[in-house]
Amino acid sequence: MPVSEGVISALIELKRTDDEGLTAQLTSQLRDLIATGRLGKGRALPSSRRLASDLGVSRNTVTYAFEQLAAEGYLEASHGRRPMVTVDGGRNEETGAVAPSVRSGKPRLSPWASKLKQTDWPMSYQAPLKPLRPGQGDAREFPNEVWARCLRRSAVRAAKRELGPVNRTRLRQALAHYLAASRGVRATADQILILPSAQAALTLIAAALITPGDDVWVEDPGYPGAAAAFRASGARVMGMKLDEQGMQRMPGLAAPKLIFMTPSHQHPTGRLMSLARRTEFLGMSRPGETWIVEDDYDGEFHYDSRPVPALQGLDAHGRVFYVGTFSKAMTSDIRLGYVVAPPGLVGTLEIAQRHVGLIASSHIQEALAEFIADGHFLAHLRRMRRLYHARRDHLVEGLERHLGEVLSAEVPSGGIQLVARLKRGRADQAAVQRLVEAGVETRALSSLALGRPRDHGLLLGFAAWRENEISAAVRTMASCF
Ligand SMILES: Cc1ncc(COP(=O)(O)O)c(C=O)c1O
Description:
It comes from Bradyrhizobium barranii. By secondary structure, this protein is α/β, with parallel strands linked by helices. Helix content is 38%, strand content 12%.
């Protein structure tokens, strides 16, 4: 029930013996009257002089209470005027909290935030994991006991260290070693920034380099998270077609500010970018003018031949950012990724990293440094490579045997997912819908296109699923088509 003028003071009961000070009591009781709707939006409160006199307290007590409620957004208090209630009362029944929204109306967002909604992409699936969701490694095969020991030792070391400095270089050194030996990346530990994800690396790079209106080239179809990060920063994102050699340069276009690519296993097709194409793109990039971002998200997994080294290793002029993640090689819950930055940009990215607080947990960094140094990381990768290789072949065989008439599987030389193109028609999104209703989760190739989709098919994950699960999913698919 709204309170009528003059009775506000009658509803307030201040206990002078209470431990809680008078200002705190008054603040909390006024807050409550607003929260429950008894003092409605637009309602003017008595002046501080009048309320102080009615309650028998000092004017300062009332003024402080009004100031506190104004700071919390419940009141608008301007000098010389009676304070006004600015929220619609009505408590959230579950939490007891009142909606803090002060004024209605559309918030005026920054240009960056305004673009987020248009560029959002369905990356984090809310629903439980279903076969054959792409982009997943098998978390069930992760050596949790070994990892738990590394985490425990990291926590114990932190407890012993007390006020000593955290060792921030150990993981970066281990990573520099690993990347040089297995991916041909040329970098010192100082060039590596450890972040909570590869996506964080893309966002930092965009924030550091993109001026609204700059051109950014990406693969089409490609990884939506990259297009989103660059678009949100105001870039004009242009999709480059693919052929057998990977991303193609569109003739007649001036060199862009940045080129994003996944040369080891193109996302989503799994194709390997040829050496000729790598050299062509490197040749057109200029330090300070055109940069390349190489996303090597699942380069650890290769099955048919020796892996092709990273493009970053061919760059002698500091034009390439090399981005990686532990989401695929370990588990996505670990939340660790990294970027190897060109020497001239390390300092800027480090400052940007601190500004936006994209600092990865030191405990987990130390545990991972030990996991790598003790050989567990390489052992895990070796085991997963064998397992995923067999699963890839199992899925390809199943698709050929049961769905050969409708789908044509492209066999990637590595990675954790594959593309199966529709042999007839273009209705890949309708197929995805039918399949998900039957319990098989896939991704439509056309949904990964930047412009008008040219490719129609399904993106299927094989790494996260046991062979019997893959067989069951293929049988379900066959019954749906
Ligand atoms: C091509 C590609 N790059 C980057 C990522 C993101 O990795 P992270 O989980 O570390 O952000 C993904 C995730 O699916 C991906 O497919």
